[in-house]
Amino acid sequence: MAHSEAEVLSGLAEIVNEETGLATEAVEPSKSFTDDLDIDSISMMTIVVNAEKKFGVKIPDDDVKDLVTVQDAVDYIVKAQDA
Amino acid sequence: MPKLSTPTPQRYSRISGIGGYRSEHAVSNDEIVGPINSSDEWIRQRTGIITRHRAGPDVQLIDMAEEAGSEAIANAGLKPSDIGGILIATVTFPYPTPSAASLLTERLGTGPIPAWDISAACAGYCYGIAQADGLVRAGTMDNVLVIGAEKLSDIIDPTDRSISFILGDGAGAVVVSHSDEPGIAQSVWGSKGENWETIRMTNSLLDLRDDRENAPWPTLRQDGPSVFRWAVWDMAEVAQEALDAAGVQASDLAAFVPHQANMRIIDELAKQLKLPDTVKIGRDIADNGNTSSASIPLATERLLRENPELHGGLALQIGFGAGLVYGAQVVVLP
Q: Which domains are delineated in chain A?
């Protein structure tokens, strides 16, 4: 069953928290993974793989660089669920 | 028609000796951060590397291979004349032909035995073990010298932020010998040619020939995040297949020795494999950097030196790298 946008945001925040220790509240849609949340490319890939498992979607390596903000990732996952 | 004569079938192989060569010069992060506009903290946080050992201009790859190989032969209680074949895994011998292995027969005085190089990058040592295991079990040879040797400092670009700063030089060697009991389990090895460019050279030797004015000296590059994903999640599956092929579980292991690519890959791989705390993990990369084909035997040699109780225990070793290629097997530690 497809997750709502709010569920994806909340699930993503949990994944980010698990990887980085950042509080889930800090994972706001407008935040940049790199510039605001200080997540490096290796941690980002771990987050991507865990998001794939949690939401049942595929996020190819080439698409990961386009996920600049949290909202980008949420949108991508919501759309990928429908594909 | 007469029946063909073949060597005695159904015997086993084991690692009977190990040796290593580490370059004396430890290069700190502070010494290399300038050209990549980085810091000691940045390198430690992303790779776990504190120093990497690099050979000077007076030490060549073949010198390191000779040191490691001689030590492994002596450690096995053998003489060079007992060795039936030499395999050198390397991507940095500066001659496409003849091979480093052939030169080493002369250096070691083994006699005119079969000798060849293996081009399988950071999986090269595990490829060598797979080949040596097959040769010994088939009865083709009794003792095979397998060496991983690299002088990666010859193919680095000081301004490259993708891989150069993690690379070091060194050589590790083992002897694979015939055995009455299984000492090397079935290898799980393969390739993923669709990702040929994920870890690559900047250009070919032909580019250098055709444009000597402008073509740069070929150096190594990688797509780090893609490599990380493949090295952790795909290699965790390969590692599990190697355990299954050996008929053992993670809890049966005494040691886990992955290719020393990046401490974060090592940590995440161990997490994915759910290794119990009792399993010693090779973490030579912190001091020695990434030495490609040499990294697994060097990390194994260090683990055994620092933890003598590991002798005779089971180790899962897995190599992975440019190709992309990978190889894994469970072995009994010498």
A: 5-82 (1.10.1200.10)
